What does this fold into?
Amino acid sequence: MREYTSDIAFTDTVKNIQQEKGSRSIYANMEQRGSWEYTANSFLKDFIAERDSFYMATVNSEGYPYIQHRGGARGFLKIIDERTLSFADFRGNRQYLSYGNLTDNNKISLFLMDYPNRVRVKVWGTAEVIESNQETIEKYSLSTETKNIEHIFLIHIEAWDRNCPKFITPRFTEDEIIKHNLNSKPG
It folds into this structure.
């Protein structure tokens, strides 16, 4: 049982290193003020609705981490309720690494970036993979392209954190550049 939601990442070993390196008091104060969020508030809902990609980390049965990029239309990562996210898993290269990893170990982490505004959000949770059918697609997916959906991923939020913009280099999509240039022209 975790005392604080941040204990999902701040294990005893991490806390000991923080103590040795002089940063433990900062995070102990954060814990006393309420630690990390564990439900989707208005910030997280708005943030996720604007994302067109994220990175997903799983761990296989031998302990090796695997990170996969997921992309789609803005908002393809859908908030089902205050503790659950979902997205459609489209037929791809058929390696099924994330699916297999989650079958052995249902722990998952998502890393979401807003490069232009230099904001990142980390989500920790557990996941389940549901075989797709019309009912699950309608309930858990925003996609209008249903032909190639193989699975639905459900992520049950255990903790999430928004952290500092330091060292995030702003990057812009082609659409953002075009929009900026169109809005910058005189007249």
About this structure: The chain is about 30% helix and 35% strand. The chain has a mean pLDDT of 89.
